[in-house]
Amino acid sequence: MVQLARVSGWGRASRHPPPSLALHWCIAMLVIFQLAFGESMVKATEAAEEGELFGGADTLLATAPYWVGLSILALVILRLGVRLKMGAPVLAERNPSLAFLAKALHWAFCPAVHCSSHRIACRLYQS
Question: What is the pLDDT of residue 39?
Answer without folding.
Answer: 75
